[in-house]
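look at this one:
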Amino acid sequence: MIDRPPNIEVPRKWRPSVGLIVSLVMATALALPLAGLFFFRIYENQLIHQTESELIGQSAAIAAVMRRELETRAPENIPLGAEVSAPRTDPAEPYAPILPTLDLTTDDMLGRRPEARPATALADPSFVALGARLAPDLVEIQQVTLAGFRLLDPKGVVIAGREEIGLSLAHVEEVAEALEGRVRSVMRSRISKHEPPPLYSWSRGTAVRVFTAMPIVLRGRVAGVVYASRTPSNIFKNFYDERGKVTLAGLTIASLALLIGFVFQRTITRPMRELMRRTAAIGRGDRSALRPLAHHGAMEIAQLSQSFLDMAANLQNRSDFIATFAAHVSHELKSPLTSIQGAAELLRDDLDPSAQGMSTEDRRRFLDNIISDAGRLTAVVQRLRELARAEATPTSGSTTAADAVIDLRSGFETLSIEANGDLDRAIRISAENVRIVLSHLADNAARHGATQLTIAAAVQGEDLRIAVRDDGSGVSRANREKVFDSFFTTRRDSGGTGMGLAIVRAMLRAHGGSIALAEDGEGASPGAAFVLTLPLAERDRPQS
């Protein structure tokens, strides 16, 4: 039974294609700027905080001015509002800042500010006079800060502001709380006289107006309210104002994404698809597919393509070698089998009583032919086994050429073996395998009439070069190109199989080495000279 390797199959499951991955990368690149718009919510909330903080600061300044005016000009019996308890202060921390509290993402959005109502009672003349004095200042402040201000008396009646003077805002939620002595900030829906740009629909902050109501405390009581409001700045307004530049930026991003896609397609997707088509064509036996790709793209694709072509070429050469080798084997076995069959049939016919008897000499001759042909078949089969073992020989182990020469001398006593050079350098091949290689060369030399064998070793780079020369009949010029072919022999009549040098070459290739017939100038005339190359063992390699 021959052990066959199991079929290697890639597990079948869904996997994204390279094109899909490239498309997702492009889509992600395009979506990143759009996804960034959602992060503007954080920035919008910061703008709300900034607006609220500015309104609180401006209101505190106006409240201080209004309180000073009341202290210096208002009579002692001026009517005041609700009593305000004095806040507890830490002597070590004299400051009591009012921090912004609005949150665009969590706080409720109140509706439009209620309209002012008629006041139930007229404002005190002192507050009316105060409002008249401060009204021009409020207008000037609004022109700079873009905030709207209204000053209210302790009953919530408007005493200063562009509109609603004399009307009451006491029913407004934030104003009512300020009249109780507490600062209150709210967000209300913004009503604009102009239609907002389409881009504003992306933002919640564009429809918001911030209102703050700060009480004015005088003598522990509420003396009025500074009611301020302003629309916060919004990033989308800038986007809309700069829509030409935003469009150009979007087109630039799209162009870059398309460029990235083109580069991916040119350098990765296209070469890989062509390589897959080549693989399928080579699998169908199309030899024309064994050529470089038209476009390799990336360096890794070029290396992968080269490795694939090298592997495919080696497999193709291996297939051709097996086909040629099978033809040679069938030819080598056919002749002796035909001879054995013919001799056996003649001997069988001689057993027929009606046939003329075969002489003893003829019977012996036919039996000798059967024995000779059977011996040749045995030799061919043995060589085939040696060749198969050489093709799959283990490549571990190391030895020296000096040890191999000692074994060679004991095995070929008829040859005078001389050795010189770097024989003590370790080579990456086992002692048994190097003995097989040199034994085949020595056997060939002896069978071609050699009496002397010279082995010279020299280090060349990371290899050991071994020259093996004999003084035999040599190799004719016509046969130099065929000496390593399987079953090529000039000693067929004397039992040669023509597989010795093929076994040597297979053995050396398995260890990363090589063998070549030396040029005419390198050999010792009239014998043959072979040059072997074997890699040195790690310990004997030259240090770079």
Notes: The longest helix spans residues 18-73. The radius of gyration is 53 Å.
